[in-house]
């Protein structure tokens, strides 16, 4: 009788955490202030091992501290610029069950001039997982 309510509480807590951040989580590393034209950032993303689906892409929103005039990613993945907000979609090759995939890629961003470009920093403000049901028939967990 005591065990069951405890499990329910933990489940609710986990769902709350995933709802807040999505099944992807991550952080940004400042790789290089100035490469001659752009500021270089490194995006680190990890997919939760707790959910049962295949992630086919991770879309994140990056919020920059200044205006961005040009931005691009490795392999020219989808990258939409709107003022100081950038939406990036990185296709994934995950094909494992509860894979816990880790992804690292670079983003190059430029502001109005050299000083503004060097001063840029950014953080990830949202994550969205594109997913498909795995071959074991999972993915029905709603995550
Ligand atoms: Zn996912």
Keywords summarizing the entry:
single chain, 143 residues, alpha+beta, Immunoglobulin-like, 4-stranded antiparallel β-sheet, 8 strands, 17% helix, binds zinc ion
Overall mean pLDDT: 80
What is the helix/strand order? HEEEEEEEHE
Number-wise, the strands total 8
What proportion strand?
Answer: 35-45%
- Shape, principal axes of CA atoms: elongated
Number of helices: 2
| Largest sheet: spatial strand order | 1-2-7-4
Number of domains: 1
The assigned CATH architecture is Sandwich
State the end-to-end distance: 28 Å
Approximately how much helix is present in the residues? Answer: 10-25%
What structural category do the secondary elements indicate? alpha+beta
Question: Which fold does the CATH topology refer to?
Answer: Immunoglobulin-like
Which CATH first-tier class would you pick? Answer: Mainly Beta
Oligomer: single chain
Spatial extent as radius of gyration: 18 Å
Question: How would you describe the overall organization of this protein?
Answer:
β1 and β2 form a beta hairpin. The model is unreliable at 1-21 (pLDDT under 50). The strands form 2 sheets. The chain has a 4-stranded antiparallel sheet. It has helices spanning 3-21, 114-119, and strands at residues 24-32, 39-47, 54-64, 70-73, 79-82, 85-91, 102-110, 122-132. It has 143 residues and is of the alpha+beta class. It starts with a helix and ends in an 11-residue tail after the last strand. The chain has one domain: Sandwich (Immunoglobulin-like), CATH 2.60.40. The protein binds zinc ion. Zinc ion (ZN) binds at residues 23, 47, 51, 53, 55, 129, 131. Residues 23, 47, 51, 53, 55, 129, 131 line the site of zinc ion.
């Amino acid at each position: 009788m005591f065990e069951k309510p405890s499990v329910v509480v933990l489940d609710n807590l986990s769902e709350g955490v995933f709802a807040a951040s999505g099944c992807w989580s991550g952080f940004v590393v400042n790789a290089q202030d100035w490469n001659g034209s752009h500021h270089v950032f490194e995006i680190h993303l990890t997919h939760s091992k707790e959910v049962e689906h295949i992630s086919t892409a991770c879309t994140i929103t990056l919020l920059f501290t200044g205006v961005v005039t040009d931005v691009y990613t490795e392999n020219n993945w989808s990258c939409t610029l709107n003022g100081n907000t950038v939406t990036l979609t990185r296709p994934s090759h995950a094909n494992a069950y509860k894979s816990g995939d880790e992804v690292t890629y670079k983003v190059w961003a430029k502001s109005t001039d050299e000083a503004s470009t060097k001063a840029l920093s950014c953080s990830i403000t949202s994550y969205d997982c594109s997913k498909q049901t795995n071959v074991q028939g999972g993915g029905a967990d709603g995550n």
